[in-house]
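Dear support,

I submitted the protein below through the web form. The confirmation email said the job was done, but the results page showed an empty box. After a refresh the structure appeared. I'm attaching both so you can tell me whether what I see now is the final result or a partial one.
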Amino acid sequence: MTDRTDIFAGDDPFALAQSWLQEAEASEINDPNAIALATVDADGLPNVRMVLLKEIEANAFVFYTNYEGTKGQELATSGKAAFVMHWKSLHRQIRVRGTVEKEDGPQADAYYRSRSLKSRLGAWASRQSTPLKSRAALMAEVAKVTAQHGTNPDRPPYWGGFRIIPSEIEFWADGNFRLHDRFRWTRLAPDAEWSIVRLSP
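What the results page shows now:
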């Protein structure tokens, strides 16, 4: 597509997303890898929250969470998710929709080990999304799991990654007078060819 030049150029949307993220890492003040992740509950009512994207793979996007929390349960039930990354410093965003699968093997173990000790212990201490009596109760649980698991805790069995395998990716850049540039990549299956169209702003 001759119209797709400059910041939109390239044949691989994952490489393009990675290049945009690398640019944002140089200009965005906090958490350039933050995504607004959308899921739906059993009634189809959406939930959205900020999480940190940890990997852009050759064919997917990966983040980590507690499988027993609201998002983990909704992802496991629906098998689908969407997210948006927005960078004010670049005046750009990426929107993604697709199916999800768990990443709870060696890759999740390696990422868990890369986290700070307090974060690893926090994953054991927090029963994500459930009612909590007080912060003091949470800190007491942290002390308890610290005594139980020591300074090199294994990854909790209820904590790991989700891989989002997109069927649709949209790259958006701000334009003068609200005449934005938008390109949508779609495919019918993970191994299918991408179709790319320019969208009206």
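Response: this is the final, complete result; the empty box was a page-load delay. Residues 66 and 159 are 4 Å apart (CA to CA).
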